[in-house]
Design brief:
The structure is a homodimer. By secondary structure, chain A is mainly α. Chain A folds into two domains: 67 residues, Winged helix-like DNA-binding domain superfamily/Winged helix DNA-binding domain (Arc Repressor Mutant, subunit A); 146 residues, GntR ligand-binding domain-like (Four Helix Bundle (Hemerythrin (Met), subunit A), Up-down Bundle), CATH 1.20.120.530. Chain A is 59% helix and 4% strand. The first copy, chain A, has twelve helices and three strands, in the order H-E-H-H-E-E-H-H-H-H-H-H-H-H-H. The first copy, chain A, has a three-stranded antiparallel sheet with strand order 1-3-2. In chain A, helix 2 packs across helix 3 and helix 8 runs antiparallel to helix 9. Chain A is elongated, with a radius of gyration of 24 Å. Chain A starts with 17 loop residues before the first helix and ends with a helix. Chains A and B meet through helix 3, helix 4, helix 5, helix 6 and helix 9 of A and helix 3, helix 4, helix 5, helix 6 and helix 9 of B. Chain A binds a DNA duplex through helix 3.
Chain lengths: 234, 234
DNA sequence: AAAATTATTATGTTATACTTAATAATCAAA
DNA sequence: TTTGATTATTAAGTATAACATAATAATTTT
């Protein structure tokens, strides 16, 4: 376990403020004392005297670690090391409105990369029950594949189910976290070019591929499914 | 821009502590005052009196927001709203040693999904100069593709260059952030099954595909390139 | 008008005291 | 002796007040 090599709060690596330094010192302390999840750390006053700094600074430094999910504090019990949940943090910062356009576009691309690339995971783990469920979700989808209908609700249910099937919890949470961003990108004017009403693989088509195809055919189908989005991004 | 709907520090949604409440109040304040990146927020003492709470609480609440990159403080200038950088946070929490095995495995899968799925981005943006550079990187790779040599350094250079080519900064940073984790997974005993010395697409083979192939052939080649890892994970 | 000096300001830091919720210790009842 | 209620203790949470520091603005000097 290596807590070192972390950056300070400020962009530059030099610890500008005292809290920066103490924060690093604390991580250092965890390291040298070989502390792992569940272990308790000294109480605030002790750390304050031990590191020769006020309790306020200790608290502020510890608050940062707590915000990042590295420690947890309870009254009387003191503070303990915890398994951090990196994605939980990310979720809290994902306010689409305050991300700049470039980042939004990047994330939208990221989604497409993920869903095209997840073919192997899907075929490795999908069950007939999953396929049936997918068919149920797309049941109300219009047959006419020429028409680009965008039902946000079904969109979420369908693609969400795909993430579920991968059995990869990290991937799943990633998707849940990115959902509001996709929604935002669709609603904002970021996707400049108009929708091209050309032939594309429908949700139903994707399920058919999952039923009868293989990872390779799925990747191509998903690529085609996203054709419209690609055209509008590039 | 909607800052609401966020969770408090504690797992449960109810604000247990005063700081939790004030943190929410602050985000609420940003919302109702339609504050966007660059805008200044009232100084600490003002907020303290205005929200009827001590400056300590204000500072702790603001520190949380600052840790998440939502605000930035400078002496004399006060505090301003900023464009948060979600990934910066994530980077700080990515200590492989304190992530549990399941998460590590998930992330390793995630990498494969990303690199298989990035074919379209690559072909959309790759230049001849990029291809030349890739050929230079793999120049010292042994011709014998039967042999699974694992040069960690070259591995990083080669795959890192691929991420660069996508031109997707978010993706790129994602990779840099995940690097130590891949390294850790390789070194730990997580990849149980032994390496299968079967035929696989080499780095050089991938460059050839980038030179003469298309997104589809690239995805298949990359899938094959990862064959060993897949076999060891499933 | 430009440069050097001083004053001001808002965050950063310290110190101290008080509040609160969770745990431990104590004691009374069965 | 065990059980249950009561009290004490502890460590984090909160509140004030004061000082330090660096960045800016205002002033003076050249």
């Amino acid at each position: 376990m290596d807590y070192t090599g972390m950056q300070s709060e400020s962009k530059s690596n030099e610890p500008n403020t005292l809290v920066d330094k103490i924060e690093a010192d604390l991580l250092d302390y965890f390291n040298t004392h070989r502390l792992k999840a569940g272990d308790a750390i000294p109480k605030e006053v002790e750390l304050a005297t031990q590191l020769g700094v006020s309790r306020t600074v200790i608290r502020e430094a510890m608050l940062r670690l707590r915000t990042r999910g590295l420690i947890e504090s309870k009254k009387k019990r003191g503070t303990i090391i915890t398994y951090p949940d990196p994605l939980a943090l990310l979720e809290k910062s994902m306010y689409p409105g305050i991300l700049n356009d470039e980042t939004l576009r990047d994330i939208f691309e990221l989604r497409m990369v993920l869903e095209i690339g997840m073919g192997d995971l899907l075929f490795e783990r999908i069950t007939q029950a999953d396929i049936d469920e997918l068919y149920a979700i797309v049941a109300d989808e219009p047959i006419n594949t020429q028409e680009m209908v965008f039902d946000a609700d079904q969109e979420v249910r369908f693609h969400g189910k795909l993430y579920d099937i991968t059995g990869n919890e990290t991937l799943r949470r990633f998707q849940r976290m990115l959902l509001p961003i996709f929604k935002y990108v669709h609603e904002s004017g970021l996707l400049k070019k108009p929708i091209q009403h050309k032939k594309f693989v429908s949700h139903r088509g994707l399920v058919d591929v999952l039923q009868h195809g293989n990872p390779e055919t799925f990747r191509n189908a998903m690529r085609n499914h996203f054709e419209n989005h690609f055209q509008r991004l590039f």
